[in-house]
Give the backbone structure.
Amino acid sequence: MMDRTAFKETFKKGDIFVVDAGFRDCRQKLIDNRYQVYINQTLKKNQNQVDDLDSNYNRKVAKVRYVVEVLHGVLKNAYPRFKHQLRNKGLLNSSTDWRILCSIYNLHFKMMGLKMK
């Protein structure tokens, strides 16, 4: 995935990835390529529950992921073209399309009242 030119052209070193557990296998490769990766912490061996630092970290990751998922839902409902899987030919422009779509959304709609520190 990361060896492809389009991926490297779209994402720059230091970009942030907030991902779910499905990306756990490629987490280290993202870090090795100097991307910032935020993923929920899981239980370590012989642990019954995550400690308080990991729990707070997980809440922050969930908070960001929630906002992203809600916005994706809003955009996909407003613009049905983005509800479906794109064909390979459409992938080349999908990043640009999403940026334009998000810009239009930001211009006309109020952002969720979320304050990040």
Q: What stands out?
A: The chain has two domains: 1-39, 44-117. Helices lie at 5-10, 27-32, 52-78, 88-108.
